[in-house]
# Entry
Amino acid sequence: MTYIVKPKFHHPALPKNALGYTHRDYEGSVSTLCAGCGHDSISGAIIQACFELDLAPHRIAKLSGIGCSSKTPTYFLGKSHGFNSVHGRMPSVLTGANLANRDLIYLGVSGDGDTASIGLGQFAHALRRGVNMVYIVENNGVYGLTKGQFSATADRGSKSKRGVVNTDNSIDLVAMALQLGASFVARSFSGDKAQLVPLVRAAIEHRGAAFIDCISPCVAFNNHPGSTKSFDYVREHNEAVNRLDFMTPRETITVDYAPGTVQIVEQHDGSKLALRKLAPDYDPHDRLAATAYLQERAAQGEIVTGLLFVEPEAEDLHGHLDTVDAPLNALGEAELCPGSAALAKLNASLR
Ligand SMILES: Cc1ncc(C[n+]2csc(CCOP(=O)(O)OP(=O)(O)O)c2C)c(N)n1
Ligand code: SF4
Ligand SMILES: [Mg+2]
# Structure
């Protein structure tokens, strides 16, 4: 944790968004992570995305577990709601908060250790239930906070800083998210902000479980030759299937695209995703084909990034449960207590 709060003053000419907020209004405390840690770049991308979407900070709730990655919500969105939960327990806390107050935007931040080991069950159930959230894993292949043990996402055959070879098979969180029914699935790289910022924006505007696996090198314990999560390795093996431009319902498509090069996907709220295809045969609407493609490319040593799957009209957990439109935490006694006559009737029906 940091106690170093950034000074409040800023240059009067800083650009403002539609709400009159500057970039600074979306920042948090000064980061205490190692200089060069990929996680800080992801924080920067989240700040940029929220600024560009003109989100009021008090409408956002950021939740995390335990780890260097889970510390990062302290370093962004300092004026939003925050909950730093127990190791691996962020998804259930987020699910409960979302059920109680559907009006907030939920941002779950986790690590590969937090999600793929102790929190694997929680991760799976939040995705299969379709909780309306953005779930970001800052994936560095190690437990950074506890000094660099292999995590469950470390590739078999990759080496630790001391040269130990990982003999366990790895968990691919993207493959799991596809199988579990997440309705927005992406992979990105902390070193590619141009790709990551529009993905975060689109994920925030998506209704349903949006999952982003973001490779985020740990410069202290997993950035050496032999690692498959180092900056050099990811840059050399990164194969983006598409490039995304994201437009809110207010924005018109201003970019000129050559005919046939772009696929426009409209989401439930009228926001538009313009996908420039880099892999011509890749179809982000086909869950099965996406799964097969990712596994084929992984077998060739490629790290496939981009928007991998999207179901634009997905239904979320509130839709499945048919809850009322008003947030449950705003209902009063009159709505919540049906009265003794209704209770007597219910009891009679059970006799
Ligand atoms: C119940 C419990 N078990 C173990 C730990 C020790 N621990 C703290 S962080 C961590 C792993 C963090 O790894 P990851 O989620 O990948 O985050 P990173 O630090 O790499 O960003 C572990 C095992 C803990 N805090 N609580
Ligand atoms: S130990 Fe690794 S993950 Fe943790 S702050 Fe340092 S570089 Fe980042
Ligand atoms: Mg980690």
